[in-house]
Design goal:
This protein is mainly α. It has a single domain, classed as Four Helix Bundle (Hemerythrin (Met), subunit A), CATH 1.20.120.450. It contains seven helices and two strands. The chain has a two-stranded antiparallel ribbon. α3 runs antiparallel to α7. The longest helix has 23 residues. The protein is elongated, with a radius of gyration of 17 Å.
């Protein structure tokens, strides 16, 4: 665990006042951009697209991530997740509703993270009937987004969806570059 923490957070340790949260926020902001831009880029007709029949649809990935944002971002700062976020079933209400939901969930996270410091990240927060250190939840969130392990998490699924969408000509994605170099 210590190796993982060092690998994630040491690069900013010498340059930031709060190196743990600065590193986390940088990775979080990258994932936020990936998700919000993907919601815009995918055409309405292609929101039901699935990489494989057993996986969630693209719209469901975004809905699930929005729900996760409310829960995990609140947990990181030791607060209960808000109720009635309007996320449940949003994928059935169209592209605008999905885009609005993912954007609102990241806005919630941004608000939660405004006062986040390394000292707060090292405090215990409730996790069901036990307590965990907030940084554990931060690492879990990045893993879920796909920011730690290549090939895992929602961010990686969005990347694979983008690649597959290019191959099969989904309307929301640019055509693949087929030029020779």
């Amino acid at each position: 665990m210590r190796f993982l923490l060092c690998a994630l957070f040491v690069p900013l340790a010498l340059s930031a006042a709060d190196p743990i949260t600065a590193s986390f926020k940088a990775k979080y902001n990258t994932q936020k951009l990936n998700f919000t831009e993907s919601a815009v880029a995918m055409a309405e007709a292609d929101m039901p697209f699935r990489l494989t029949p057993d996986q969630r649809s693209f719209g469901d990935w975004l809905e699930h991530t929005a729900d996760m944002n409310y829960r995990m971002c609140s947990q990181i700062v030791g607060q209960p997740a808000p109720k009635n976020t309007g996320v449940n079933g949003v994928q059935n209400r169209g592209k605008k509703a999905i885009s609005d939901a993912i954007n609102a969930s990241f806005a919630h996270c941004d608000k939660m993270f405004e006062g986040l410091t390394d000292a707060k990240a090292l405090e215990e927060v409730p996790a069901g009937n036990k307590k965990v250190v907030a940084v554990d939840v931060m690492i879990s969130a990045l893993r879920e987004y796909g920011g730690i392990h290549a090939g895992e998490g929602r961010g990686s699924a969005l990347h694979r969806t983008h690649q597959q969408g290019q191959k099969i000509g989904l309307t929301g994605w640019p055509a693949p570059d087929t030029g020779s170099r």
